[in-house]
What does this fold into?
Amino acid sequence: MSTVTMGEAPADESAAPEPSGEKRRRGALALPIASVAAGTAAIGAHGALYGHWIIDDAAITFAYARSFADGLGPVVQAGAEPVEGFSNPTWTVLLTLGKWLGLFDRGTIFGIPDYVLFPKALALLLCAGILAACHLAASKVMRRPWLATLGVGAVLALTPSFVIWIFSGLENPLYALIIVWQAVLLFRAVLDDRLLSMRLALAVGGLAALAALTRPEGLIYAGVYPLVVLGRLNKQILGSSIKHVLVSTAAFGVPVGAYFLWRHAEFGRWLSSPSIAKRQGIPALEDLTRPGELIAYAGAPAALLAVVFIGMAVARPSPLRRGLLTLLVPLGLAVIAYAVLEPDWMAQFRFATPIWVLGALTSVLAAGAAFRNARFRGRVWLTIGLTAAMLPTTASFANAASEFRQVPDISACYVADRFGRVFNGYADVLGLREGSLLIPDLGGSSLTSRLHLVDMAGLTNHRFADLVGDHDKVGQGNYVFETVKPTFIHSRQPWSSGNGLGFDPRLDRDYYPVHFDPFQGAPNGDWVRKDAIPSQEKLAELRAYAASTALEVERGEGAWPRRACGDTLRPGQTVVGDG
It folds into this structure.
């Protein structure tokens, strides 16, 4: 029996203090979450500098995602032939899901076009996943892993090459997430002495498969698990090692093999059209020097200091030594992949994204070990050295970010306006219900054009892909002027010289010039087939329309490089700028 003293209120059980274990758990989560959030916010703040910019190549994937979501299959636009014009199936799937959920290619969200907001917000979410993986790695070897998470976030946020391509609309954030999680799972497994685990073998092999289905060179990451196992091989575990490597290889090979079989059944080809057109060949010996570009970009002092930190950590017997050697395997493969890939025309090293992530994680963990093992005076000198090394890198990165912000690579919105909406207007002036357009840029144009698009770059056209891959300029000319006979042609450098179409005498024979590029001059610009012109008066009207509309877009490209281009991108639109 219990009593309550007069004047005292009964105790409120709901106000009882939380158990100390619950408080500790919440406290333990606070710093990791805060460090991931802070690093992600820093990356996002840098990304905001580039406004609504989306690279035009990303809009090709947007167009395929639209077609898949609308039930049209693997076509770049309604009515086009099925062509695998994308090389990032997993990213295409995510965009397709976004459209099905009403988050992409529908309109605006918070007043921002969803073709801008959705891929950029998804990229930011994936960046949080990247930093979460880095925190898991750091938590195995550091007392304060949140500091390492902040460090990796700061390095990535500082690097224009990483931030630019993460928010470009391309698959880079998904690719980086997959690769860093593969590396971190192996890092933790090696430290826990559970490398030969079926679950790990399946997970790492599966992540390698996802990497291969996100970027073509992702195939190389199938070698990560076998190489790590090889590095720890001995006679006692030989049989078990072989079994686990086979399991990991199967986890990689089954989904990738299934996709290749689908590709061949659907398109009759083992490679995607972009892979054929881009002519990836056997690397030459001098290609192995290409990673030196990244050292020059990051700054030799910073790169040298990172190597020193890693060397110090690897030379010292410790659990971290085994972990860092493990991380160096995917990092090394990322460097090899970068070296052997055909150089890309886009600025800011878009193929280097995995290198920045794995390099930042490895360097920060090694630097943490150096500071942890040093005495006070040593830490002072390390801080001075780190600051001195990072000053020129910071200045160089700031300059690179500023230059790209002012003159970014060709945007989806420029192409949507210049080659989609402008040529729709041309067709309207001539009263054409149907027609075709030969152009080198098929991103934004495939989202806005009502004309049948012919891709002279070959990314979405099998015949052109074969001709471009074979360097067959004569064949390209014959295909255009004798077979396709497009209603409109747009050509400019470097395409005019590269394929010879701008200087082919059949261009003057069969086409009237409509508008010449104000920066490159004749023959670079817009052309229309003579048999599509009913009268010279109509040709004059077309040229007048081009002089106002096309020129507006071309002049606006430099003055307004980071803009959006309307709430939606739809075939048939003719109003440039805001749809």
